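ok trying again, last paste got cut off:
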Amino acid sequence: MTLALDAAAQDLLFREARTANTFSDEPVSDEQVQAIYDLVKFGPTAFNQQPLRIVLVRSEEGRARLVQHMADGNKAKTSTAPLVAILAADNEFHEELPTQLPHFPQAKDMFFSERSVRESSATLNGALQAAYFIIGVRAAGLAAGPMTGYDAEGINKEFFGDGEHSVLAVVNIGKPGEDAWFPRSPRLAYDEVVTTV
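nice, full thing came through this time. structure:
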């Protein structure tokens, strides 16, 4: 075996894991979400920046506010998932760098004084953290339904009115329901992706 991770864990996180489109009504607890976050927060990012912000949408009022901004094909599943998380990038993440990168606190001003640089970095590293979050949901024995079919400007205004956050994805979370999966789509082979120089 080439990988250190055992086959069952590989299946749980990757081979058998799927994007869920329906969910059971079994709730997802705050303790489960905290356990997910407490695991995935250790995923690597540039300069140890941590731009990911997560809004858990639990209330009916919050759900209605979110669903109005979802693409038509995503409205029903977002309405019925046990938990929905809005994943966003905090474009002012650099304010925390002195505490998150204590051996190099000057990185805050040296590299991230310009807004456009911060936004680009927040998007890239926030997307990395969003991917870790999805893997963490799978590690908790739950299914994730990540989506980017939405009105981003609408969600940003609705949930992040400060103009400092940019939505990255909306993720439905829970135990899979009936007919949760589409057929598995093909993946590129190793030789189509990897080259050696």
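cool. The CA atoms of residues 21 and 182 lie 8 Å apart. The first helix runs from residue 7 to 15.
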